[in-house]
Amino acid sequence: MEIPSVIGAGLAVIGAGIGIGMIGGRAMDAIARQPEAYGKIQTAMLIAAALIEGIGFAAIFAG
Amino acid sequence: MRSSFVSNFLVGVFFLCLGPVLFAKETPSESGGPAGTKAEIKEYIEHHLKDSHDFSIASYTDDQGNKVHWGFPLPVILWDDGLKVFSSSLFHHGETVAEVDGNYYKLYHSKIYKTDSEGTIVYDAEDHPTNTKPLDFSITKNVVMMLVTGLLMLWLFTSMARKYEKSGGVPTGVAKFFEPIVLYIRDDIAIPNIGEKKYSRYMPFLLTVFFFIWFLNMFGLTPLGVNVTGNIAVTTALAMIVFLMTNFTGTRDYWKHIFDPLGDGMPWYGKMIIYIILVPIEILGIFIKPFALLIRLYANMTAGHVVLMSLIGLIFIFKSWVGGPLSFGLSFAISLIEILVALLQAYIFTMLSALYFGFAAEEHDHDHEEPVLEHL
User: How far apart are the first and last CA of chain A?
Assistant: First the structure.
């Protein structure tokens, strides 16, 4: 049986979503713990989120 | 003061959101059932995502059943046994065959093909045209938008620089808005990633690429209906510049990090085994980094446009009073997110470019490593 590629793309996007959610959540924790490091944490968060987002988009285009 | 800012902001947002609603004027004709409408919407979105040879703002079918186009033609420049320059109005939006110096050309899915006088296009088994494609150097819609953005930036920033000279370093007018952004790019993107010593070499590129991408992203949200940064050729060119700059400014330490990352930490027979895996990965990394950069920008902007236009397509799918308000509300919300995304993607592109330049510019100061360890 052949699994449609859209399902694979959907699964990959779920993974990317969970990943970005975890990054956002951890960044919130970090900011709450160290509010003075807000800028640095935000930058690192955005970079990590952007890298994961790339995978999500690659999956969408492959699917 | 503040209230005028807020009202101006809201008016600006309103016009940005009006953009998609104006696109919706290009109504698919009433023929065909719901499936036909869906196919037409899909085709329209695909058409919007592509570059085109004429600058059309909107088109509609009038009472007599004629298609009326709003917009203007652009010059077509072809290399086909000599330079051929003509106006894209000869194509009549792909409906007719253009005759130039005894050669016939036809537009098919926004690409120019050489045909016979009838405009016949021959397809292969996969429905791809087999006609020859002349080399196309046309000033297309995307090229026009890039030229406009380039000129806008040139005018904006040179006039700003002159005003700084006159006022002795005090920002006036529009510089009050742009100065914090420029300073942010310098102090929070360039210096932390590239380093105090070398950042100034890369600043012109970082600023240019940031404002270029940001302005083009914002133009994509206006009723002009352009999709420049959502075009893979444009993002490829931008990423290629980053790739060339990274590798041509790479220091000895940068190349050492790729071909000999362990240095003196291990005897050569130990390194051989690890390097069989490590070095190819590092070399692949050189190409993957700019590739990720180009895919990210292209995919983000394309996805944004597809979502926005699909929401507008809801009007034609519902065909009742529900569709209008629903579509307006959703596309309003998405437009606001897209304004954020437009800035965010420009920021991410600049940020990651700076990061890669930082890798290229790294220089290990081996004499200073010992005192750092003593602190621990």
Answer: 17
**Considering the domain boundaries, does residue A1 fall inside one?**
no
Count of CA atoms in the C-beta half-sphere (13 A) of B207: 18
Q: CB–CB of A57 and B352 under 8 A? A: no
Interface ipTM > 0.85? no
pLDDT per residue over B208-248, tens digit each? 999 999 999 999 888 887 889 988 899 999 999 999 999 99
Residue numbers in B near A60 (CB within 8 A): 299, 303
- B146 vs B157, B211, B212, B213, B278, CA distance in Å? 16, 12, 8, 10, 40
Q: How many CB atoms lie within 10 A of CB B239?
A: 23
The single residue listed with the structure tokens 């000129």 is B151
Q: How many domains does chain A have?
A: 1
Pick among A23, A41, A43 to test the B interface (most B CBs inside 10 A):
A43
Tell me the shortest Cα–Cα distance from A32 to chain B, in angstroms.
Answer: 21
Place of tokens 């980094």: B289
Q: Is residue A4 part of a domain?
A: no
pLDDT in tens, B9-30: 555 555 555 554 455 444 444 4
Indicate the residue type of B182.
V
Domain that holds residue A25: 11-62
